[in-house]
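Lab notebook, bench 4. We co-purified these components, and the gel suggests they stay together. Before we commit to crystallization screens, I want a quick structural picture of the whole thing.
Request: model the full complex, all chains together.
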Amino acid sequence: MSARPKTSDAGIRAVARKLLEEGGIDNLSMLAVADAVGVRAPSLYKRFSSKSDLLLAVTGDTLLELQASVEKAVHPRSAYRSLERMAAAYRAFAKKNPRAYQLIFEDIPLSLDDRSDRDVRLAAAAALLRILSEAMGEEKALLGARTLVSFLHGFLSMELNELFRFGGDINEAFRFGLSTILNALLGSGGRTRR
Amino acid sequence: MSARPKTSDAGIRAVARKLLEEGGIDNLSMLAVADAVGVRAPSLYKRFSSKSDLLLAVTGDTLLELQASVEKAVHPRSAYRSLERMAAAYRAFAKKNPRAYQLIFEDIPLSLDDRSDRDVRLAAAAALLRILSEAMGEEKALLGARTLVSFLHGFLSMELNELFRFGGDINEAFRFGLSTILNALLGSGGRTRR
DNA sequence: ACCTGAACACCGTTCAAGT
DNA sequence: ACCTGAACACCGTTCAAGT
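Here is the predicted assembly.
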């Protein structure tokens, strides 16, 4: 008897996330996770079939949080304001969770056939597509979303990896790029550039 | 006596690049490199002080090639045409060298204080900045470059990781995003959207 | 049902010893 | 000068054995 669980699925994911954020992906070993959780490494394999599996679960958690943050920023009446605030929320989340954020876009070709991961990703894009559909029409919304998300992710990827090396104000660069794209996408219906 | 070199600095970098492109970063171990080069692993450490060091060198090679490809695409008379062709060259290079391309933006916080790496990166951006300076004025050029490069890198990062999952024509999405941004940056002086 | 120690194959890296 | 075998600490993962 005995053999009562010393931890939980969610507990392991949380510890993994913490180790990742604190010391990067190299700090996230199954042995370190097991240690922090108070268990031996082999026990982790009862709950996650591999390290990839655990990373995928962490990515899922991160995506859900990112989606929630971005959706909270939607403004009821203005598409421009919504997109501006969603973009700010997106950037704030990425800067607060840099390692987890980068996991979403990098290590995940594994997850292509993972149903739940796919669903979370689609949900995360839904709010953006809805707003752009209303503002640009359904046929252009997907093109607009891809333009906007590409800019956002590219900007964050460069900012987090400290690849903006010519000096200048990074916040201004973000505002400039975002307003350039939003004005172009929303046309004269949107707010004009300040 | 004997002990003549069985390989060279450049030979090792080329093999590493090949292993990386063929089987991803997991395929690029010091033992695999040594094996492919016809030497034992410890010998590699005479030329590269660590695996990171080798990866950094591979990244440098990649950056130089990327810079050369993009610069070849410059058009003598039209800023719009130059930027359009440079963007196409950038995308073509990334799709032809997906793993090496991703290395540039991911694994490289190590290289922040590496002089030569820094220089290569600055040079790679110089052509773009020059063209935008002529078209937008010097004060706006850096902002415009950051907008454009963010879009390009974000788009490629998503495309290479197969994260465009709503269907639709990816080439059309690239053309749409690029022309949206170029028209907005270059104003009525540029070519109008098709 | 869950946990464990022991073991396996594989890493990156160091170093004394060879030619 | 360059290469090598042996060794170290660490990793992901498996599995038979414990309670």
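The two ends of chain B are 69 Å apart (CA to CA). Worth comparing against the SEC data before the next meeting. The first helix of chain B runs from residue 9 to 23.
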